[in-house]
């Protein structure tokens, strides 16, 4: 395990800055523009990029500036797609997998709160991914949406990116990776136990 952690630290520290920039910016953009956030939340990419900037040659300034542009552009793309083909997307296979309940929750929030929802959505997993599409479908005024999009995107990217940078600089990449391994193993065990219990309850309803 020690050798694996050391290897990962070396990879993070020696990755060329342009690779870090492109990967982080692409993932942040695609989170909302292509619903990638349902699989890989943008915080993951931003935090990893911040750590890479703390232990390697990546500039945290350029990382954050580019990620701000990517986040704003990604949400603007999702907003436009929602206006053009939102209902059709909801009826697609991916839309059905997301679930009607999730779509309804975001739609209700957009219709009743508007700008505060767009601002707050940046901090809530799947809500951040779905909000641009729902805002577009709901015909939210473009000027209001763009204002909230820019403000929310800049605050979110800066905060998350700097958290990754500061944690990487103070705690260290090795300790972060060890912590990640522990959390990952715990998550696997938790889901395995939950799956086993659900199977057991299904086979024995009287239990």
Automatic annotation (TrEMBL):
Keywords, sorted A to Z: Cell membrane, Membrane, Transmembrane, Transmembrane helix
Keyword Transmembrane helix listed: yes
Main location: membrane
Membrane-related topology note: Multi-pass membrane protein
Subcellular location: Cell membrane
Transmembrane stretches, start-end: 18-40, 60-81, 144-169, 175-196
VTT domain boundaries: 40-165
Signal among keywords: no
Family note: Belongs to the DedA family.
The protein, known as: DedA family protein
Organism whose genome encodes this protein: Williamsia deligens
